[in-house]
Design brief:
Elements (H helix, E strand, L loop, with lengths): L19 H9 L3 E4 L1 H5 L4 H8 L3 H13 L4 H12 L3 H10 L8 H10 L3 E9 H10 L7 E4 L1 E3 L5 E4 L10 H13 L4 E5 L2 H4 L7 E5 L6 H6 L2 E3 L2 H8 L3
Parallel strand pairs: 1-2, 1-6, 2-3, 6-7, 7-8
Antiparallel strand pairs: 4-5
Helix pairs in contact: 3-4, 4-5, 7-12
Pathway: Amino-acid biosynthesis; L-serine biosynthesis; L-serine from 3-phospho-D-glycerate: step 3/3
Cofactor: Mg(2+)
GO biological process, one term: L-serine biosynthetic process
């Protein structure tokens, strides 16, 4: 019996294995581009910044690293981190005012270019909607194109948990959002761009995934990405080929 050589596993290989050139082609033909936010669109991890602001930074940063590396479910990591932070509404508002999220270089230009070409842009984040909406406003992304987790507060402003019904609260949630967008809008080519394990697992249903390492490089994501970039300039350059 002749043994056939094993084909190395690549993410998105449920169908025919895509190549780098095919991934770039899908990006050039995209009808919608979905971005992760923390460590992708912005330089920091929003939940880590909130934890630092509330004085519990070290404990939460380590848990974020495990979550992004894929060693625990996202919902478990989110629940445990928030139970440590227990931020008030006032603290969240003060964080946004005193330490607004810092945009990653090149993202404003990339989003502008996508909009100029009538490509829809969405932000799909495991972070918090109140922070992500601030980012969306800076980038002229409609707030109804934002999918993120909602913090809950009691009437006196104290922390009351988070909305567990949001798809972004679960592992696999970003993929659920993309499936919903494809169904609602009839998109055929949807690209997901992000730095973490939850972004990688959104392809499929995303037509292609582009790994982003401009702020932090997660080795698992880099190894499984058919196209991995470290600056948004690389994507802007590719758009010149359209």
């Amino acid at each position: 019996m002749v043994k056939l050589p094993l084909v190395p596993y690549r993410h998105c290989s449920q169908r025919i294995m895509a190549t780098l050139s095919q991934t770039k082609e899908i990006f050039r033909r995209a009808e919608a581009v979905c971005f992760d936010v923390d460590s992708t669109v912005i330089k920091e991890e929003g939940i880590d910044e909130l934890a630092k602001f509330c004085g519990v930074g070290d404990a939460v940063t380590e848990m974020t690293r495990k979550a992004m590396g894929g060693s625990m479910t996202f919902k478990t990591a989110l629940t445990e981190r928030l139970s440590i932070i227990r931020c008030s509404r006032e603290q969240v508002n003060k964080l946004i005012t005193d330490h607004p999220p810092q945009l990653t270089p090149g993202i404003r230009e990339l989003v502008d270019r996508l909009h100029q070409r009538n490509i829809k842009v969405f932000l799909i984040s495991g972070g918090f909607r109140c922070i992500v909406e601030h980012v969306a406003t800076q980038l002229n992304i409609p707030l109804n194109h934002v999918y993120a987790n909602r913090l809950k507060f009691y009437f006196n402003g104290e922390y009351a948990g988070f909305d567990e019904s949001q798809p972004t609260a679960e592992s696999g949630g970003k993929g659920k959002v993309i499936s919903m967008l494809k169904e609602q809008h009839g998109f055929k080519n949807v690209v997901m761009i992000g730095d973490g394990a939850t972004d990688l697992e959104a392809c499929p249903p995303a037509s292609a995934f582009i790994g982003f390492g401009g702020n932090v490089i997660r080795q698992q994501v880099k190894e499984k990405s058919l196209w991995y970039v470290t600056s948004f300039g690389e994507l802007l350059k590719e758009m010149e080929n359209i």
